[in-house]
Amino acid sequence: MHRENLEVVLREFGIDAEQVEASELDDLDLAWHRLDPWPDTVDGLARLKSQYIIAPLSNGNVRLMIDMAKHGGLPWDAILGAEVAQAYKPSPEAYLRTAEILALSPGEVCMVAAHNSDLAAAQKCGLRTAFIPRSHEHGASQTTDLQPEGNWDWVAGDLVDLAKQLCV
């Protein structure tokens, strides 16, 4: 999907993907695998990991999550998500199968996200929810997901703040 979207974006900017070296397209396509984590992420996850299972529930593929973890030092216990659950968020199966894979009830799982819609879908499945704003995730002109828009179980400024709220 990343490659297909890259080719669409190139066309939008008047660039013919067939005129670009395949190795350059491959490198650009794999840039997602080399994303740096938010500054609070590694410390916050490490603190949370001391008491909880840490696993991304991402629509990204497992290899992407592995590469991001290795590149950014993300201390995940497991990598879950669409490939493992065989369902994409916001489908209920994505959330419910994740809980099942971890041998937990939905109420024992907390979905931590910067997207209100993701939290709403998780909450409908019985998961606990925590909102962390990422006001520049979509650039400086972002207008959505700047504030919590639901009755989430926790709202935190960042993952370190969430860990302070949750870890005894």
UniProtKB/TrEMBL annotation:
SUPFAM superfamilies: HAD-like. It comes from the Bacteria. The keyword Hydrolase applies. Keywords: Hydrolase. InterPro entries: HAD-like_sf, HAD-SF_hydro_IA, HAD_sf, S-2-haloacid_dehalogenase. This is Haloacid dehalogenase type II.
